[in-house]
């Protein structure tokens, strides 16, 4: 890098930042690296122009990242919906199986799950209006 044409460390730093920014954002966007030489006579205007270019590039990257994040959020929301639906279906199935199982089957099943915990009370069979079990 030829820094002899720059008078102050600030001008050198701006030149280095400019080249880094251009190459970094070009690589992000898949473009070719562009090399731009700063003119000492218009260093103030060049700094403003560089700042504007950097700001535009950062806005572009920010927009790209926001789009990618929104897309990922939509995918995750859909997965959550599917999992909630599946969970609800399994809960209904579990409730149905519990109501259809005999108390002995429930007791045996509970003893397999947690031998140290007492089995919960089994659901009572629904009764018909005449008082007999259905």
UniProtKB/TrEMBL annotation:
<keyword id="KW-0963">Cytoplasm</keyword>
<feature type="compositionally biased region" description="Low complexity">
    <location>
        <begin position="122"/>
        <end position="134"/>
    </location>
</feature>
<dbReference type="Pfam" id="PF01166">
    <property type="entry name" value="TSC22"/>
</dbReference>
<keyword id="KW-0539">Nucleus</keyword>
<dbReference type="GO" id="GO:0006357">
    <property type="term" value="P:regulation of transcription by RNA polymerase II"/>
</dbReference>
<dbReference type="InterPro" id="IPR000580">
    <property type="entry name" value="TSC22/Bun"/>
</dbReference>
<dbReference type="GO" id="GO:0005634">
    <property type="term" value="C:nucleus"/>
</dbReference>
<dbReference type="InterPro" id="IPR047862">
    <property type="entry name" value="TSC22/BUN_CS"/>
</dbReference>
<protein>
    <recommendedName>
        <fullName>TSC22 domain family protein 3</fullName>
    </recommendedName>
</protein>
<dbReference type="GO" id="GO:0005737">
    <property type="term" value="C:cytoplasm"/>
</dbReference>
<feature type="region of interest" description="Disordered">
    <location>
        <begin position="101"/>
        <end position="134"/>
    </location>
</feature>
<keyword id="KW-0175">Coiled coil</keyword>
<comment type="similarity">
    <text>Belongs to the TSC-22/Dip/Bun family.</text>
</comment>
<keyword id="KW-0597">Phosphoprotein</keyword>
<dbReference type="GO" id="GO:0070236">
    <property type="term" value="P:negative regulation of activation-induced cell death of T cells"/>
</dbReference>
<feature type="coiled-coil region">
    <location>
        <begin position="66"/>
        <end position="100"/>
    </location>
</feature>
């Amino acid at each position: 890098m030829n820094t002899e044409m720059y008078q102050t460390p600030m001008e050198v730093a701006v030149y280095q930042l400019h080249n880094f920014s251009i190459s970094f954002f070009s690589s992000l966007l898949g473009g070719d690296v562009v090399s731009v030489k700063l003119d000492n006579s218009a260093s103030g205007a060049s700094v403003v122009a560089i700042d504007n270019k950097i700001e535009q590039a950062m806005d572009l990257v920010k927009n790209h990242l926001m789009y990618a994040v929104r897309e990922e959020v939509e995918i995750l929301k859909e997965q959550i919906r599917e999992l909630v639906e599946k969970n609800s279906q399994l809960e209904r199935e579990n409730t149905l199986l519990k109501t259809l199982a005999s108390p002995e089957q429930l007791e045996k099943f509970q003893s397999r799950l947690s031998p140290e915990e007492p089995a919960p009370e089994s659901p009572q069979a629904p009764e018909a209006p005449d008082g007999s079990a259905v």
